Amino acid sequence: MSRPLPRHTGGGIAQAVPAVLSVTCAIIAWEILVHVSGISPLMLPAPSRVVEQMAVNRQLLWENTLPTIRATLAGFSLSMTVAFVLSVALDFMPRVRRALFPIFVISQTLPLVAIAPLVVFWFGFDLTPKVLLVALVTFFPMLVALVDGYEATDPEIGELLRSMGASRRVVFLRARLPSAMPYFFAGLRISITYAVVAAIFSEYVGARAGLGIVILNAKNSFRPDLVLAAVVISSGLTLVLFAITALLQRAVLRWRYVGDGK
After folding, report:
1. Sign of CA dihedral 126, 129, 132, 134
2. pLDDT tens for each residue of 137-163
3. CA dihedral defined by 219, 225, 229, 231, rounded to 10 degrees?
């Protein structure tokens, strides 16, 4: 028997209401706490002050958001491509998978704080090191998800196709790849949440522009309000990319949502 496919978590506005309410209540409580306690804005700026800084510095933030978006999308595209190609190669060559998979696992144990300066030192301050760091951080969840998805294929389907004279390639395209798609999107959702953070961290280590540079300069100038403004934008980017991934999943795996009323 094959392993059960990971089910989607659903969607719809109704399911987002509790999260929106909890975040709204937290922001209101934060605002009230700052005003009631009289804490210095240099220690904890109020949400209203953060929004004000986003408006005042909108040009600065926009000009530095674009490089972060470019690094995120380029790195994630590279990551997705490498993960898919490797997963196919490992599925067709089990011995190679047993030899290389431990290396991929070890690559994820390397601390980013130690690797990032080296990558910047080797490749400079342009787009390349940021793309490589984003790819390094995000490719492993997708690779594991795809490999697990191939293994989850119902063996009876493969046996049926082979009994009809199907080649290994046909079995992969007709059975193993479709079986892996729900797993792939599960890994995609995990990876996309790391992509923006990895891009900002790579900029923080060494770059000419980006949200990471804004955060670094604001920190050195004792501007927590501007730091939080950049953090809000990075969180918004992550949420937008996650939503796009969810919409793409619904479009590709439309059959999984038929009849669920969502």
Report:
1. negative
2. 898 889 999 998 888 888 888 788 888
3. 50
pLDDT at 74: 94
**Structure confidence at residue 2 as a pLDDT band (50, 70, 90):** very low
DSSP for 228-243 reads: HHHHHHHHHHHHHHHH
**How is the chain classified by DSSP, letter by letter?**
-PPPPPPP----HHHHHHHHHHHHHHHHHHHHHHHHHT--TTT---HHHHHHHHHHTHHHHHHHHHHHHHHHHHHHHHHHHHHHHHHHHHHH-HHHHHHHHHHHHHHTTS-HHHHHHHHHHHH-SSHHHHHHHHHHHHHHHHHHHHHHHHHTS-HHHHHHHHHTT--HHHHIIIIIHHHHHHHHHHHHHHHHHHHHHHHHHHHHHS-SSSHHHHHHHHHHTT-HHHHHHHHHHHHHHHHHHHHHHHHHHHHHTGGGTTTS--
